[in-house]
Amino acid sequence: MKVWTIANQKGGVGKTTTAVTLGGLLSLWGFRTLLVDIDPHGSLTSYFRYDPDAIEESAYSLFQAAAGKTTIDPATLLYKTGTEGLELLPASVALATLERQAGRMDGMGLVLKRAFESLAGRFDYVMIDCPPMLGVLMVNALAACERLIIPVQTEFLALKGLERMLHTLDMVLKARSLPLPYTIVPTMFDRRTRASVDSLRVLRDTYGEHIWNGVIPVDTRFREASKVGLPPPVADPRGRGVEAYSSLLELLMSEPRPMPASGVAR
Ligand SMILES: Nc1ncnc2c1ncn2[C@@H]1O[C@H](COP(=O)(O)OP(=O)(O)OP(=O)(O)O)[C@@H](O)[C@H]1O
Ligand SMILES: [Mg+2]
Fold first, then answer.
1. Whether the CB of 83 sits within 6 Å of ligand 1
2. Which residues form the AAA domain (predicted)?
3. In angstroms, what is the span from residue 200 Cα to ligand 1's centroid?
4. Residue 66 needs a FRET pair 20 to 30 A away by CA distance; which of 49, 119, 185, 209 works?
C-alpha cells in the first residue's frame, strides 16, 4: 500500500482537487484507493456529500482513541464515495480541537501511520488531503507517507507560500528516519496570463528537479464536477485538467523511488 500526502500551507492552491482527481483516476485504473480527509473544514468530505459538522465516525475517532489509550479499527471509519474502488476516511469539525490538545500529548504524531498499517491489505493507494496549516495533522500525514505532492498555484503570492512549506518540510524531515521525496505540481495554469507564465518560469528556475515538468491548466470542469459530487475523472474523463492529472499520475507511479531527496532544495 502506497501512501501519498498532498499538502501546502497556502490555502486554495488545489490540494483537495488534486486528491480527489488522483484518487478518482487510481480507482478507474483498477487500484483500490482510500481518500483521507484531515482538514477540519472537511472539503473532501463535503465533496462526497457527507457533512463534517454532523458525521459520527471520522479521522477524529482515531485521534480520540489514541488520546484515550484505546484502540479502534480504522476499517469501521470508512465511507463509500459512489465510485467503485474509492473509499473515504472523512474529516469532522472536531479535528480542529486537536491542535490544542494533541500538541501536549506524547505519541500523537504517529496516529495515521498506525491506522494505515492496519489497513495495509485493503488498499493499493492512500491519498491524504491536508489542511493549509502546519500542526499535528500535517505532521501525522508527513510521518505516514512515502511521497509528498505540493500543489502550487501559478501566481506570485503562491511562491512565498511554497518557501514556507519547504521550510516546514525541512523541519519535519529532521524528525523522520526515511527521506521523503516530494514533487511540486504547478496548478491553475493559464498560459494567456503573464502572472501564470512568469511565476511558472520562476518555479522551474528555483526548484529544478523537484518540480513536475507538466502543468495543471485552469479548467472550470473541476468546479462543475464538485457540484455533482463526482471525482473529475468520473464526471468528465477527457477534460483537459483530468488529462494533465493523468500524466502526472503516470509519472508518479513510474518512479518507485522518485527523487533522492533527504533534504530540501533551495
Ligand atoms: N485546475 C483548476 N482549474 C480551475 N479551478 C480549480 C483548479 N483546481 C482547483 N480549482 C478550484 O479552486 C478552488 C480551490 O481548490 P481546492 O479546494 O482544491 O484548493 P485547496 O488547496 O484544497 O484549498 P484549501 O486550502 O482551502 O483546502 C475550488 O473551487 C476548485 O474547484
Ligand atoms: Mg482543501
1. no
2. 1-174
3. 18
4. 49
Decide if 180 is inside a domain. yes
Domain count, the chain: 1
CA dihedral defined by 14, 188, 145, 253, rounded to 10 degrees?
A: 140
In contact, 130 and 39? CB cutoff 8 Å: yes
Q: Judge whether 248 lies within some domain.
A: yes
Q: What is the CATH number of the domain that holds 166?
A: 3.40.50.300
218 in contact with ligand 1, CB cutoff 6 A: yes
Q: Which residue has 472536531 as its cell numbers?
A: 94
Task: Using the atom order of ligand 1, give the atom closest to the CA of residue 12.
Answer: 23
